[in-house]
Amino acid sequence: MPGVQHIALTVTDVDRSVPWYERVLGFTTESRTDHADGPSTVRLRGLGVTLTLVQYPDGSHAPFDECRPGLDHLVFSVADRTWPDRLAEYGVAHTDTPDGVALRDPDGIRLVLAVTPVTA
């Protein structure tokens, strides 16, 4: 079936980002590959998607900027509106949006948790 196979995000430190995605958003690590003189990649599963976090050894440590060409933000569909409580529990700054909540990961990548109504 056609669709998105996975999403890969470049991060500055997988050892910082992976626990954040697991703890805050409930992802589970499926695999990790560390290449000698190459990138470290960690594949996570959660919120109905496979997410790969990639850290390049000589990658830029410039802060994320959605105004540059590339990713603007990533939206995850969620079934309920309890996320603000969970984010507050972990001290994650967030703002309400008409559809859910917006937040940033440890590298400043903008994420949105959009409430998708459950249909019968």
UniProtKB/TrEMBL annotation:
Gene3D superfamilies, sorted: 2,3-Dihydroxybiphenyl 1,2-Dioxygenase, domain 1
Domain named VOC: residues: 3-120
Protein name as catalogued: Glyoxylase I family protein
Organism: Actinokineospora diospyrosa
Lineage: Bacteria, Bacillati, Actinomycetota, Actinomycetes, Pseudonocardiales
